[in-house]
Amino acid sequence: MRLSKTEEDLMNHLWKLEKGFMKDLLEAYPEPKPATTTVATLLKRMTDKGFIDYKRFGNSREYFPLVKKKDYFSKHVNSLIKNFFNDSSSQFASFFTKETNLSKAELEDLKAIIDNEIKNK
């Protein structure tokens, strides 16, 4: 299951905070802040989708993520590779390195990461 763009924005705030009440989440937004009702609706949808849960403290709810950021984005990158690059990591890497205008230093860093992964396998 996937989050909408607005849900992803809220989820990013929650991942950064690790847990938070409604007021904490609203404070995390830049101006202009969304309406409380908008955030409440997003939280409800994200709870229903199984991405977050909450603990009750009286009338308040403290929300926390059930899905790790790394796991969420890993799933979507793998889906992107499968659907847009014929399930070819090489095609994805070629596109990524050519189309993102990486500097020589960034490409060297990426090469070092890949070389390290090869060494560890």
Largest sheet: 2 strands, antiparallel
Average pLDDT works out at 92
Q: Which structural class should the secondary elements be placed in?
A: mainly alpha
Contiguous uncertain segments of 5+ residues? none
Please give the alpha-carbon distance between the first and last residues.
31 Å
Radius of gyration: 19 Å
Helix % is 55-70%
Query: Number of helix segments?
Result: 6
What does this structure look like?
The chain is elongated and about 55 Å long. It has 6 helices and 2 strands; from the N terminus they run H-H-H-E-E-H-H-H. The chain has a two-stranded antiparallel sheet with strand order 1-2. The protein has 121 residues and is mainly alpha-helical. The longest helix is centred in the last third of the chain and has 17 residues.
Which short descriptors sum up this protein?
single chain, 121 residues, mainly alpha, two-stranded antiparallel sheet, 2 strands
Give a quick rundown of the structure.
The chain is mostly helical and 121 residues long. It has helices at 5-17, 22-28, 36-48, 69-84, 89-99, 104-120, and strands at 52-57, 60-65.
